[in-house]
Amino acid sequence: MQSTPRFLQGVFPFAGKGIESPVPLDAALTYTVPVGVIAQTVYFRGGNTSGELVYVVLTRDGTPMRYFPIGAKSDVHVPLRVVEDLDGGTVVELLVGAPEGVTGSIVVDLGLVEV
What we know:
Blueprint: E1 4-15, E2 18-24, E3 30-32, E4 39-48, E5 54-60, E6 63-70, E7 75-79, E8 85-86, E9 91-98, E10 103-114
Antiparallel strand pairs: 1-10, 2-9, 3-9, 4-7, 4-8, 4-10, 5-6, 5-9
């Protein structure tokens, strides 16, 4: 079976809107699984330049799927060993949650594979 890797990645500035109010980072962090294909998440890596705890939330069709807390001026690497199938047409997106007024940059790298 042939597989194709896909990545949602980059360095993005953010401004916190409240720890309970995650916001989209960038359109580049949205991925739609092609029809007729199944995708699976493989890993998440992230880093945070701010002095506060922030988090990245992976959403599936607008519903939170996974939360990744990233400490102040810290990083996280999470292998996603519990594989979940994302059917064709599913939209995944990364959003960031941070305390109101907190600014900084976040480095994200979400690895997926299409099978």
